[in-house]
Write a structure and sequence with these properties.
This protein is of the alpha/beta class. The protein folds into three domains: 195 residues, 3-Layer(aba) Sandwich (Rossmann fold); 87 residues, N-(1-d-carboxylethyl)-l-norvaline Dehydrogenase, domain 2 (Orthogonal Bundle); 135 residues, Rossmann fold (3-Layer(aba) Sandwich), CATH 3.40.50.720. Helix content is 44%, strand content 13%. It has 18 helices and 14 strands. The strands form three sheets. Strands 3-2-1-4-5-6 form a six-stranded parallel beta sheet, with helices on both faces. Helix 15 links the parallel strand 10 and strand 11. The longest helix is centred in the middle third of the chain and has 32 residues. The radius of gyration is 24 Å and the shape is globular. The chain starts with a strand and ends in a 10-residue tail after the last strand. The mean pLDDT is 95.
């Protein structure tokens, strides 16, 4: 099938590449000339494990193209995906200007009946508004599909190719057949394609992300309670999460959630609910707890080392909002670093993939190390923020030798306190009993 994907950000590039790998003829469009030039040179503008290999293979085999010419691309396509960003506006609502601009372009360019698939994360009612835009600019036939993505950064290819479910919102039976033809190869293991109305499909994505964010904020708040009453949050989460109705996934305490989805989608759903006259009290709390949680690790450092960190050096391990990505949008590390800089600390940072993004956000206010050990050389403390695999089993003798001080702050509870303290270091985690070492 001939498919055009408008938008080569995270969602559009992954979706377009995976569709090409399934055998479809894909042309990816973006107005960003620099991004398209990079893709044409074989460079991949985002970090996602395995994506570069898939792009190179499908370009080489002629199934995947990149261009800035949206009009010509739409004219060639039977199906057009809208995969542009919907960033939060000042009030927390989703900015849909990009979606509507693409819809106008499609309407003016299309020369046959076209299936328009909204892959961007959009609030309830967006498909109806896109239909209005299309109707204003074309008399040709079309249908609008709501097809939210459920991709985890760091595992996006696996999520696309082996989905838990595929959600498709549409009106027309013919369009349903088109979408089934596209996606049926992905559900041969029995996972469902869930067909429904557009508005329900639009709400599915927000409901899923808001619920996962709620789990994270819930266990983070419990972790803070554990510290006050002398319980161990890891034991509590295992005990509660072993209930089959609860489970252990997305049930880990830490430094708070970040990234391009949870913060934005929680706020957008709150905005939608407020517009409908029904504020979502639970999500108000989820958001507030997460904003507070991002400051917890920094507060622990200040509590241990003092409010004035002048002359102190702190090594930060991990900057991306999660492992297996270079994405630093809404990353807890940024909040922690700002706290420590404000207290006068010298900050040295290291992340396996996000250093270039860090330089955009932090500039020359921090020092950039090339290895994890370099980041803590002569430091008074090491602060783990992102649980990359290479941080899971460090050489504690080497860590102790590199550090000037003795403090280890584990913002993701990936280390055993007894192991860390066995090397003469002081351990501080999230929701765990206070270290035995004074």
């Amino acid at each position: 099938m001939k498919i055009c994907v408008v938008g080569t950000g995270y969602v559009g590039l992954v979706a377009g590449t995976c569709l090409a790998d399934m055998g479809h003829s894909i042309i990816c469009v973006d107005s960003d000339v620099n991004k398209i030039d990079r893709l044409l040179r074989g460079e991949v503008p985002i970090y996602e494990p395995g994506l570069d290999h898939l792009i190179h293979r499908n370009v080489r085999e002629g199934r995947l193209e990149f261009t800035t010419d949206g009009v010509a691309s739409v004219r060639r396509a039977e199906v057009v995906y809208i995969a542009v960003g919907t960033p939060p506006a000042a009030d927390g609502s989703a900015d849909l200007s990009g979606v509507f601009a693409v819809a106008r372009m499609i309407a003016l360019a299309m020369e046959r009946h076209t299936t328009v698939v909204i892959k961007s994360t959009v609030p309830v009612g967006t498909a109806d508004r896109v239909r209005e835009v299309l109707s204003q600019h074309t008399t040709l036939g079309f249908d609008v599909v709501s097809n939210p993505e459920f991709l985890k950064e760091g595992a996006a290819i696996e999520d696309f190719m082996r989905p838990d479910r595929i959600v498709v919102g549409c009106r027309d039976e013919g369009t349903r057949k088109v979408m089934h033809e596209i996606y049926s190869p992905l559900v041969r293991t029995g996972k469902p394609i869930l067909f429904m109305d557009n508005r329900s499909a639009e709400l599915c994505k927000y409901a899923a992300n808001a619920f996962l964010a709620t789990r994270i904020s819930f266990i983070n708040e419990l972790a803070r309670l554990c510290e006050l009453v002398g319980a161990d949050v890891d034991a509590v989460r295992r005990g509660a999460g072993s209930d089959s109705r609860i489970g252990l996934r997305f049930f880990f305490p830490g430094a708070g959630y970040g990234g391009s989805c949870f913060p934005k989608d929680v706020q957008a759903l709150m905005s939608t609910a407020a517009d409908a006259g029904m504020p979502l009290q639970i999500l108000d709390a989820v958001h507030a707890v997460n904003e507070a949680q991002k400051k917890v690790v920094g507060q622990k450092v200040l509590s241990r080392l003092g409010e004035d960190l002048g002359g102190r050096r702190i090594g930060i391990w991990g900057l991306a909002f999660k492992p297996q990505t270079d994405d630093m949008r809404e990353a807890p590390a940024l909040v922690i670093i700002e706290q420590l800089l404000a207290a006068g600390a010298e900050i040295v940072v290291y992340d396996p993939e996000a250093m270039h993004e860090a330089k955009r956000s932090l500039g020359d206010r921090v020092t950039y190390a090339t290895t994890a050990l370099e980041a803590i050389q002569g430091a008074d403390a090491v602060v783990l923020v992102t649980e990359w695999n290479e941080f899971r089993a460090p050489d504690w003798d080497a860590v102790a030798a590199a550090l000037r001080g003795r403090d280890v702050f584990d913002g993701r509870n990936i280390w055993e306190p007894e192991v860390v303290e066995g090397h003469g270091l002081r351990y501080t985690g999230i929701g765990r009993p206070r270290p035995s070492n004074p």
